[in-house]
């Protein structure tokens, strides 16, 4: 940190020696370092033991392990995606490059379209809207790519009522930002930066909480059975056919259920359907079997009109329950992977509690004895006075 140049770009992994997930990431981290070096990338790759370099970890606000952060021109970017080589490399290429990438030809535009499921594009000359767009890009570059182009580069089917404009291309179509209708630009981009239907993992689902939309999920196994395939195709069909009606919904399927298990605080049934409201940590479950498209549409209608109760939430009681559940799940995981550490984490607070109880119990008789002594001391003069023989009077 003291010797780096102002233009240096670093991606750093913060780890703890006892963290099993950090150890699993080690070979991936070495591959990333080797590949970036062979490509001549300006990004330097490093790692830091957060338990030893506590000052550096505090400066980067490391709260969990492994933490992956990027430092570019004094700005720190936190990576919250899957701990895979492809995911991290995409993050590096996105953040290390320009905030807004200019597409100067039809060929470049088509190439970008083929690589990205969602494309945000600014069209027009310099304007206040472009300034806002660039400011949003600086904050949200960790999540998605930002592009700019001239009108003649766009497909001829794209109709723009006026310039400048911001568009999002996804799901085989496009939408144009309208400030009066869509409100704040950043909030609109957060809502629209995901495909309408796609495979969702726990990292993506967590990030979707900022969109403010409900998420319809088909929970399936990795080796999807016939029933799971039926749920997936049902959700995908409704997502495509009723996109305009359910603009406040995202649709997808999940093959990993740890996040949902934590949300409902229990084991989930697979395959099944669930609608989650990530802004309040709530969820909705169908009241019966969902076998047809009409059943799914009735379920979504019940979610919107309030006839189906929202479970969970982020109230105080729910937060306490979820904290207890997460603590138990963490201790179970740690105990299975590091038994000695798990025993210490369980026994240490119990030992402290036992010591406090012992001290309290020991203090009680001492206080009682003191009180008795004080009482005797107060009574003794009175008894002494009462038993004292009367003095005789003499002339």
Automatic annotation (TrEMBL):
Alphabetized GO MF terms: protein disulfide isomerase activity
Keyword Cell cycle: no
Principal subcellular localisation of the protein: membrane
Domain of life: Eukaryota
Pfam families: Thioredoxin (PF00085), Thioredoxin_6 (PF13848)
Residue stretches spanning the membrane: 338-361
Subcellular localization: Membrane
All copies of domain Thioredoxin, residue ranges: 1-97
Catalysed reactions, as listed in the record: Catalyzes the rearrangement of -S-S- bonds in proteins
Enzyme nomenclature, EC number: 5.3.4.1
Swiss-Prot/TrEMBL keywords: Membrane, Transmembrane, Transmembrane helix
Membrane disposition: Single-pass membrane protein
GO cellular component terms, A-Z: cell surface; endoplasmic reticulum; membrane
InterPro entries according to UniProt: PDI_TMX3, Thioredoxin-like_sf, Thioredoxin_domain
Protein name: protein disulfide-isomerase
UniProt organism field: Monopterus albus
């Amino acid at each position: 940190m003291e010797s780096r140049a102002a233009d240096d770009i670093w991606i750093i992994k913060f780890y703890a020696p006892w963290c099993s997930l950090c150890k699993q990431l080690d070979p991936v981290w070495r591959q990333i370092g080797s590949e970036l070096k062979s490509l001549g990338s300006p990004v330097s790759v490093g790692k830091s033991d957060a338990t030893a370099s506590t000052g550096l970890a505090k400066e980067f606000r490391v709260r969990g392990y492994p933490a992956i952060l990027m430092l570019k021109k004094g700005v720190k970017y936190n990576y919250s995606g899957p701990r895979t080589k492809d995911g991290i490399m995409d993050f590096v290429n996105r953040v290390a490059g320009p905030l807004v990438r200019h597409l100067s030809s039809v060929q470049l535009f088509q190439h970008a379209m083929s690589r990205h499921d969602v494309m945000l594009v600014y069209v027009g000359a310099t304007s206040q809207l472009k300034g806002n767009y660039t400011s949003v890009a600086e904050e949200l570059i960790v999540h998605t790519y930002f592009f700019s182009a001239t009108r003649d580069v766009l497909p001829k089917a794209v109709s723009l009522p006026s310039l400048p404009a911001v568009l999002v291309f996804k799901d085989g179509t496009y939408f144009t930002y309208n400030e009066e209708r869509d409100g704040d630009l950043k909030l609109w981009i957060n809502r629209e930066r995901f495909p309408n239907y796609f495979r969702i993992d726990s990292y993506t689902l967590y990030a979707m909480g900022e969109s403010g939309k409900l998420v319809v999920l088909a929970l399936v196994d990795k080796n999807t059975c016939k029933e799971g395939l039926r749920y997936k195709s049902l959700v995908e069909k409704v997502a495509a056919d009723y996109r305009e009606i359910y603009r406040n919904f995202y649709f997808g399927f999940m093959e990993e259920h740890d996040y949902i298990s934590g949300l409902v605080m229990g084991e989930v049934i697979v395959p099944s359907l669930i609608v989650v409201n990530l802004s309040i940590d709530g969820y909705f479950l169908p009241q019966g079997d969902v076998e047809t498209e009409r059943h799914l549409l009735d379920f979504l209608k019940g979610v919107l009109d309030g006839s189906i109760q929202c479970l969970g939430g982020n109230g105080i009681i729910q937060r306490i329950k979820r904290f207890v559940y997460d603590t138990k799940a963490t201790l179970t995981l740690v105990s299975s992977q590091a038994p000695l550490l798990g025993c210490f984490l369980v026994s240490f607070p119990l030992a402290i509690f036992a010591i406090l109880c012992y001290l309290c119990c020991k203090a009680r008789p001492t206080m009682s004895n003191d009180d008795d002594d004080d009482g005797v001391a107060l009574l003794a003069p009175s008894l002494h006075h009462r038993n004292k023989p009367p003095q005789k009077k003499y002339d």
